[in-house]
UniProtKB/TrEMBL annotation:
Belongs to the major facilitator superfamily. Proton-dependent oligopeptide transporter (POT/PTR) (TC 2.A.17) family. The chain crosses the membrane at residues 28-49, 61-80, 87-107, 113-133, 154-174, 180-199, 236-254, 260-280, 300-317, 344-365, 377-399, 411-433, 445-465, 485-505. Keywords: Membrane, Peptide transport, Protein transport, Transmembrane, Transmembrane helix, Transport. Pfam families: PTR2. GO terms for cellular component: membrane. This is MFS transporter. The lineage of its organism: Bacteria, Pseudomonadati, Pseudomonadota, Gammaproteobacteria, Lysobacterales. It is a multi-pass membrane protein. PROSITE patterns: PTR2_1. GO terms for molecular function: peptide transmembrane transporter activity.
Length: 517
């Protein structure tokens, strides 16, 4: 581990500036291309399709891409923890990321080339996603961990600073200068991000990769599942086996649902089966593994339940760049305005809400005798996302009725959704790092990002459902359009998730896994 003067006790590490600068440029590049992806697909790349199918196909491509972005953190976290360390993994994955942006700019009329670029960006962006935030946490120890919350908030603030300008400008560049320029600018910013990160290489605290550990999380789970006790059955092993069989069986539906959906369902079944089975038999690992390691593994499984309950939030949040943009095209607006620019409201409000919450709202709640803990904030955030979708569903009902409606009305659901985002996402970054055992911080942060993959899986399943005539016939009986029905469905999904999250959070005991020195 590198020890540098910047680690003076109780002070903010200077090297944080390089990581924050890198994140601002990288987020501009990511959101710059992501926020114009749906309109580009509808108006250019998918023109070969019938108009009635184009919008749903564009949403499928968008959410499949997001699934990839938030799936590959599993790979990045594993490579960093076991082989290369966070710094080197981030640097090399960033170069893959740059290559993906180059493909988008060059192959604007080639589906193969463009989708190859999306794949490379998903690999690069996903590979570094769990590591940059975790790398921030590595720069702190017990002497200055009280400053970590401020830095995680600043980290999230700079994400939104980059996202704001990307969301505001890139739709205009796409409209006036074409896809090559609109996708090329984010690529240039990603190259700048890589250089900025490289410049701080001599000042970073670099924790070495974790060597093979006989008490690793996976080994503890295996011991818990296979260990026999005289006179006792192994129900956990049967649950794990059922999870494996369900994962394999999911692929039988690949022809109907598509490979991405069944692969995600298989992953969910595998994690649920193995994790649930190991939880039932975790005490059998004691004696073969240290008590601290077994307690750490049990805590990881408890964290994964928290993560699972946040997935409905992400199914709602990511649709602002697909479903909400499509709705914006049906609303009235000035001729110079592009519906995708409404997404700039999200990062702008985040930059305002983070300091407001920390300086005004949270202190006020404490003075009133209510402590806004991480889990309480996340519960409220999921509920606010549900309220946002009730509002946007109401707007869709008005649009479907034929009444003209200004796009300004979308400000209200954006405000509600963004407030929910600050309470869930900004809080979740710090929560995930603090709850992760030292040997698994990269992997646990990867599981935090996997919540977005599962959230987007729910969107793909909902889109697949509305292709079924029986489902659409039942929706028609409600008097709502398919789009409006889906909006109210997702709102109910989030509100039920908030209830379940709140009930589970009341029993959760938080731990402190910041390093001692």
């Amino acid at each position: 581990m590198n020890i540098t003067p910047e680690r003076a006790e109780g002070r903010l590490p200077r090297q944080i500036a390089y990581i924050i600068g890198n994140e601002g440029c990288e987020r501009f590049s990511f959101y710059g291309m992501r926020n114009i992806l749906t309109p580009f697909l509808i108006t250019t790349l998918l023109l070969y399709m019938p108009e009635g199918q184009r919008t749903l196909a564009a949403k499928d491509v968008f959410h499949t891409f997001v699934i990839g972005v938030y799936f590959f953190p599993l790979l990045g976290g594993w490579l960093a923890d076991r082989f290369f360390g966070k710094y080197h993994t981030v640097l090399w994955m960033s170069l893959v990321y740059c290559a993906g942006h180059a493909c988008l700019a060059v192959f604007e009329h080639s589906r193969l080339g463009f989708f190859t670029g999306l794949g490379l960006i998903a690999l690069g962006a996903g590979g570094i996603k769990p590591l940059v935030a975790s790398f921030v946490g590595d720069q702190f120890d017990q002497s200055n961990k009280h400053l970590a919350k401020m830095v995680f908030d600043a980290f999230y603030w700079i994400i939104n600073f980059g996202s704001f300008f990307a969301s505001l400008l890139m739709p205009l560049f796409l409209h006036h200068f074409g896809a090559a320029v609109a996708f090329g600018i984010p690529g240039a910013l990603m190259f700048v991000a890589t250089v900025v990160f490289w410049l701080g290489r001599r000042q970073y605290v670099m924790l070495p990769p974790t060597p093979p550990d006989p008490n690793a999380f996976s080994r503890i789970l295996r011991t818990a599942l296979v260990t026999r006790r005289p006179g006792q059955a192994r129900p956990g092993l049967w649950i794990a086996a059922a999870g494996v069989l369900m994962a394999l069986g999911a692929f039988a539906f690949a022809g109907t649902l598509g490979f991405v959906i069944v692969a995600c369902l298989a992953l969910v079944a595998l994690i649920g089966g193995v994790g649930g089975g190991a939880w039932l038999q975790m005490e059998r690992a004691r004696g073969r593994h240290p008590d601290a390691a077994v307690d750490g593994a049990r805590n990881v499984l408890r964290v994964l339940v928290i993560f699972a309950l946040t997935t409905p939030f992400f199914s709602l949040f990511d649709q602002k760049a697909s479903t909400w943009v499509v709705q914006g095209h049906e609303m009235t607006m000035p001729s110079w305005f592009q519906p995708a620019q409404m997404q700039a409201l999200n990062p702008l409000l985040v930059m305002l809400l983070i300091p407001f919450n920390n300086l005004v709202l949270y202190p006020l709640l404490r003075r009133l005798g209510y402590e806004p803990t991480a889990l309480r904030r996340m519960t409220a955030g999921i509920a606010f996302s549900g309220l946002a979708w009730i509002v946007v569903g109401g707007l869709q009902v008005v649009i479907d009725g034929g009444d003209p409606l200004s796009i300004v009305w979308q400000v209200l659901p954006y405000a509600l959704l963004t407030f929910g985002e600050v309470l869930v996402s900004a809080t979740g970054l710090e929560f995930a790092y603090s709850q992760a055992p030292t040997s698994m911080k990269g992997v646990v942060m990867s599981f935090w990002n996997l919540t977005t993959t599962v959230g987007n899986l729910w969107v793909l399943l909902a889109n697949a459902a509305v292709r079924n005539e029986t489902v659409t016939g039942s929706i028609a009986g409600t008097g709502l359009s398919v789009t409006a029905f889906q909006m109210f469905f997702f709102a109910a999904f989030a509100l039920l998730a908030a209830l379940a999250f709140g009930l589970y959070a009341r029993r959760y005991r938080e731990v402190d896994n910041y390093r001692a020195v």
